[in-house]
Design brief:
Number of strands: 7
Distance between the termini: 77 Å
Shape: elongated
Radius of gyration: 30 Å
Number of helices: 6
Oligomer: single chain
Number of domains: 2
Structural class: alpha+beta
Largest sheet: 3 strands, antiparallel
Length: 194
């Protein structure tokens, strides 16, 4: 926002990064300058007043480390957690992680875990209908891949590898492998050797 002062032949330009209050005494260190004064120039060809544009430097205190803010934000972490949870359930479980569905079977309309290694090897998920696969995915969502579990796994992985939350999109293969390993470990807990 700019204000024209006809007595001083100057335009006061409001700095949007500072609160709106009258200009402070120029030249005193440590006081913010919310207004930048610039003279009006008449364009030589158009004969119209022109306000020169000048880049405004932000004070160092106003520049925030956005990466650190994203990394410590619970809201951002929750959104990232939900994103990867549903990426597993809606995409990866039907592709690269389809073998995990062998640990589950549907009997009498209920999803149950296979109990033995023979049952696991005999379970053929390629013959499962889309409804059966959907039931198995729902079972994994409610019993294994809860929001808290996904967040716990991601936090543990990030702290072990000293990675920040905002770096996860560049390391999607790592997230894939870590969540696949977590689901496999949880499903294998109920499997006996016979």
């Amino acid at each position: 926002m700019a204000y024209y002062n006809p007595q001083m032949q100057q335009v006061f330009v409001q700095n949007p990064n500072l609160p709106a209050y009258p200009p402070t005494v120029p030249g005193i260190q440590g006081f913010p300058q919310p207004f930048i004064t610039q003279p009006i120039i008449t364009h030589p060809i158009l004969a119209q007043p022109v306000i020169p544009v000048r880049q405004v430097q932000l004070r160092p205190a106003l520049v925030a480390d956005l990466d650190a803010m994203i990394d410590s934000s619970d809201l951002a972490q929750r959104d990232i957690t939900k994103y990867y949870k549903y990426k597993v359930l809606d995409k990866w479980l039907y592709g690269d992680m389809a073998f995990l569905l062998k640990y589950l079977k549907v009997s009498n309309g209920q999803v149950v875990l296979v109990k033995t290694k023979k049952e696991y090897e005999a379970n053929d998920v390629s013959k499962d209908s889309s409804d059966v696969i959907e039931k198995k995915a729902d079972y994994i969502e409610t019993n294994i891949l809860t929001n808290d579990n996904v967040r716990m796994v991601l936090k543990r992985t990030l702290s072990e590898l000293m990675i920040k939350w905002y770096e996860l999109p560049n390391r999607e293969n790592l997230v894939h492998d870590v969540l696949e390993g977590f689901i496999r470990k949880e499903l294998k807990k109920h499997l006996t050797e016979q």
